Amino acid sequence: MKPKIIDNQTLVKQILSGDQQAFRIFIETYQRLVAHIVFRMIPTTADREDLCQDIFLKAYQHLASFQFESKLSTWLGRIAYNTCINFLEKKRVQLWGDLSEENDSLDQFTGTEIAPDTFTEKRDISNRLLQEIEKLPLPYRTILTLYHLEEMSYQEIGEIMQLPEGTVKSYLFRARKKLKDQLMTQYHQEALSC
Amino acid sequence: MLKHLNDYEIQELLDKNYAAVPAEKRAHFDTCQHCQQALQNYKILSGHLGQEKGFALPLNFADSVIQNIKIQTQQEEKANWLEISVWILGLGGAIGVSIYSLGWSNVLGKFQNYLIFFESIIEKNVAVFQKLIQNLNINLMAIGAAGFVLIVVMSFDYLWGRFKRKVGPFISGNLKLL
Predict the structure, then answer these.
(1) Interface with B, mutate which of A110, A127, A130, A188 (most B CBs under 10 A)
(2) Are the Cβ atoms of A107 and B177 closer than 8 angstroms?
(3) Which residue has the higher pLDDT, B163 or B176?
(4) Residue A89 Cα, gap to closest chain B Cα (Å)
(5) What pTM, to 2 d.p., does this model score?
(6) Would you give the end-to-end CA distance of chain B in angstroms?
(7) Those residues with Cβ within 8 angstroms of residue B21's Cβ, 6 or more apart along the chain or in another chain
(8) Residue A129, Cβ neighbours under 10 Å: how many?
(9) Sign of torsion over alpha carbons A50, A53, A55, A60
């Protein structure tokens, strides 16, 4: 069932007045965003759904303090991001990984390209892409998801991750370059072994 | 011959931020197969990133969130009642044990003594305070009014804070938090 379209101010007002149906609409509208953030950041399948529940519970408890200074999606995204960071910190997972620019400069010539047809022909590109995304540092993965799946702007992503817009853009470009280079390398190797 | 576009510039074109790429580089791009191929590969990558299936939560996710909030609220309410009950029991027990060990008349006598003692302290302090006020020539009514206003403002602020934090009960589910 598709959630009803209500403007966010009315929705929040209704939730605060105790309307259960309004809260259900809120969950159904934003569960995709929350799932994207949680599933991308949390590696353990067993913890993901619990964390999503936790995020909506926190949102419910703090909704009265939401001042509409940002979008509701950005506010909720920030709760989701911070909840995941806290969870990972407790589990002592390395959060930032290797973000050094070594071998990752964007100012260089684009390097050897393979023909787009060859690139597209590879049917398993989606699976490989997923594997490669998982290897990226956490901020890169999160930014890729928010930008490409949620179609958020640099500013919105920056608000969620508490990063300057320039940093968001730089991480996004480097993440895409890394992905493209990894996939290209794999295809070159395959072409050579054929 | 002009150098190829670098990765940064190719990605600016991918995001349709054309102004970020110098005009001569854009002119080069129009004629350079290598740069066009590089952009095309990024477009394919971007397409796959955008089409990623994403992650789905169970269909009844909203129901389970609401259910969990209800359960948690009930537990919090129970915990609150338990806490209040323990306090009342503790206080009642302490008073009961004191009365039992000291004897009722003894307690009453001691209580009266304490009352007299406190009354004398208050009387002394009031007298000192009155003398002080007289010396300073301060209007007691003005102080009282100011105190009253302060108490009203503080009470209003406290109640407003509570009201703002409170999330109302769900109409159909009798659900409330905080």
Answers:
(1) A110
(2) no
(3) B163
(4) 23
(5) 0.68
(6) 69
(7) B5, B9, B12, B13, B29
(8) 18
(9) negative
Over residues A66-115, the pLDDT tens digits come to 888 889 999 999 999 999 999 998 887 766 666 565 555 666 655 566 56
Q: Does B58 touch chain A (CB under 8 A)?
A: yes
pLDDT in tens, A110-131: 556 656 555 555 557 777 888 8
SS3 for B87-142 is HHHHHHHHHHHHHHHHCHHHHHHHHHHHHHHHHHHHHHHHHHHHHHHHHHCCCHHH
The 8 Å CB, 24+ separation contacts for B3-6 are B3/A109, B3/B28, B4/A109, B4/A110, B4/B28, B4/B32, B4/B34, B4/B35, B4/B38, B5/A110, B5/B29, B5/B32, B5/B35, B5/B38, B6/A106, B6/A107, B6/A108, B6/A109, B6/A110
Nearest to A144 among B49, B165, B172 (CB): B49
pLDDT digits (tens, 9 = 90+) for A4-45: 567 888 999 999 988 889 999 999 999 999 999 999 999 888
In this complex, do A20 and B57 lie within 8 Å of one another by their Cβ atoms? no
Q: Which of A110, A148, A184 sits opposite B50 (nearest CB)?
A: A148
* pLDDT level of residue B143 (50, 70, 90 thresholds): confident
Q: Which tokens in the block code for residue B147?
A: 């105190």
The radius of gyration of chain A from alpha carbons, rounded to an integer in Å, stands at: 19
Measured distance CA(B168)–CA(A14) in Å, rounded: 10
Tokens of A192: 């050579």
CB contact under 8 A, B68 and A125: no
Tell how strand B167-170 and strand B175-177 pair up: antiparallel
- CA–CA dist A62, A77 (Å, integer): 14
Cβ contact, residue pair A19, B171, below 8 Å: yes
Cα atoms in the 13 Å half-sphere on the side-chain side of B69: 29
Which residue in this structure is represented by tokens 């589910």?
A: B173
Inter-CA distances, A175 with A79, A129, A155, A169, Å: 24, 12, 18, 10
Longest dimension (CA), chain B: 111
- Residue B67 touches partner A, C-beta closer than 8 Å: no
Residues from chain B contacting residue A19 (CB–CB below 8 Å): 170-171
